[in-house]
Design a protein that fits this description.
single chain; 468 residues; alpha/beta; Rossmann fold; Diaminopimelate Epimerase, Chain A, domain 1; 3 domains; 6-stranded parallel beta sheet; 18 strands
């Protein structure tokens, strides 16, 4: 693309020069030699001449220009420049930058489909937001790096059954710190169980070690948590150096540094921003892990995502191995999982667009959220509520279509005082010790869970009370 930037001084050059190399070739037209020399000293391509004279534009050969960008502060002069351009070339695309609130000044000129008026604030937001965010993120990267000494071992602790968002984020943290598997192992108190996640760590050759709480600080090891917060764990973790997460903060905790961004759809998005701010382009392996983490936590940007997730996804997509992600997403389904899902469908009940299923005892916790996701594919279902017994715990997973009441707030209201509960608007989880659940509700059943949750889901007054 060939751009012609018409301006009174070098302000537009300072604004556009970093965009130029990415978007195309930009040449500048300014009113005098002094301004032109300032731009030339910074390696800009520039002409100079009277902006209001036809002869100036005839020398430029406008037919080689794809788009003209006009920034002249006087509204009358700005209009005259645009009129001159259109007189000389009927097909040139023109962008007129204005500081006016509506992005377009009053004009008696007929509508020109190839003339677009843009407000400066919109341009600034579109092209500068990333740079501003990079400035904030590089400070956080420097702070994170300062937390850990060169010879210190670091444990990157994940939740009990790590998901792709956590795994990809842990890899990114290790890369950001310039560490390796030996000095900075990725650890969990549980195990990876879901078939897709097992496929991910196998195909991307990611090692996740099982440790006990007593091992966390052995030999003075430091502790970093990603995609999870200290209150998630039933036991005290001791000194926590770092917490990076996108989930809502449930209760207060202590950490030397924490970056919690509840508006983000994934923790992998945060780490992608860290890497970009630090000027570190991720390898194909790391980009694949981060991209898959964003994709799974946001349901391919359909749930709980924002522009930051979209920006990170777009950045990672050309760097990642898409064929590898396809292989990860289609692992072999163990027969016992298929049988558990089949039994679950036999217990399905739908009331007020809410599907409630209790699986009974299950060997693998990941079957529960899988079934909750599946419920949303059933016609007429807006909520999927699935529970199961995993060892001596009641696990309840909730999914909804995203534009309804907050699943996370409802789960916290019902179960947080007897266990661990929370989440986002469209997805939430509760884990409650079996004995405490029975103390409150008497038994674990579809009937009990439905009677507890249904009023908060369908009753407007009750949900407003729950969200206070």
């Amino acid at each position: 693309m060939q751009y012609l930037a018409i301006c009174e001084d070098d302000l537009l050059f300072q604004f556009m020069r970093n965009v130029a190399t990415e978007q195309g070739d930009v040449r500048y037209l300014v009113p005098n030699l002094k301004i032109a020399q300032r731009i030339k000293l910074q390696r800009g391509k520039v002409w100079h001449g009277d902006l209001l004279k036809e002869e100036t534009y005839k020398k430029i050969k406008l037919h080689h220009v794809d788009q003209a960008v006009v920034f002249v502060r006087d509204a009358g002069d700005q209009e005259r420049v645009c009129r001159l351009l259109r007189l000389l070339d009927k097909n040139i695309s023109i962008v007129s930058l204005t500081s006016e609130k509506n992005g377009k000044k009053n004009s008696k000129e007929p509508d020109d489909p190839l003339l677009r008026h843009l407000q400066l604030a919109d341009i600034f937001a579109e092209f500068c937001a990333t740079q501003l965010l990079d400035t904030l993120n590089i400070k956080k990267v420097e702070r994170i790096r300062s937390l850990f000494g060169e010879g210190e071992k670091i444990h990157i602790l994940l939740q009990h059954d790590p998901d792709p968002d956590a795994i990809g984020s842990a890899l990114a943290l290790r890369e950001l710190l310039g560490r390796n598997r030996t000095t900075t192992p990725i650890v969990t108190f549980g195990t990876v169980t879901r078939p897709e996640n097992l496929a991910m760590i196998e195909l991307l050759e990611i090692q996740i070690d099982h440790i006990t709480p007593d091992d966390l600080h052995k030999d003075g090891a430091r502790l970093a948590l990603v995609d999870v917060q200290p209150p998630y764990y039933e036991q005290a973790l001791g000194r926590v150096d770092l917490v990076v997460d996108h989930h809502p903060k449930r209760t207060n905790f202590k950490a030397r540094f924490a970056d919690l961004r509840t508006g983000y759809g994934s923790t992998a998005t945060i780490f992608t921003e860290y890497l970009r701010a630090a000027g570190m382009e991720p390898s194909q392996r790391l980009a694949t892990a981060l991209l898959y983490g964003i994709k799974t936590d946001t349901l391919f940007l359909e749930r709980g995502s924002n522009l930051a997730d979209l920006g990170a996804f777009n950045y990672l997509y050309p760097l990642a191995n898409k064929a590898m992600i396809t292989r990860i997403e289609r692992p072999a389904l163990p027969r016992e999982d298929l049988e558990a899902m089949g039994r679950a469908l036999g217990h399905l009940q739908i009331d007020n667009a809410v599907a409630v299923i209790h699986l009974g005892e299950v060997n693998r916790e990941d079957v529960i959220p899988q079934m909750a996701e599946f419920c949303l594919q059933i016609e007429g279902v807006d909520w999927g509520v699935v529970s199961g017994l995993v060892n001596d715990r009641v696990v309840i997973s909730v999914r909804n279509v995203g534009y309804v009441k907050s699943a996370g707030e409802i789960m916290k209201k019902l179960y947080d005082d007897i266990g661990s509960a929370g989440g986002h608007r469209a997805m939430a989880k509760a884990v409650v010790p079996l004995n405490r659940f029975k103390e409150r509700y008497g038994e674990v059943s579809e009937k009990v869970i439905r009677e507890a949750m249904l009023p908060l889901i369908v009753d407007k007054d009750q949900i407003e009370l729950a969200l206070r």
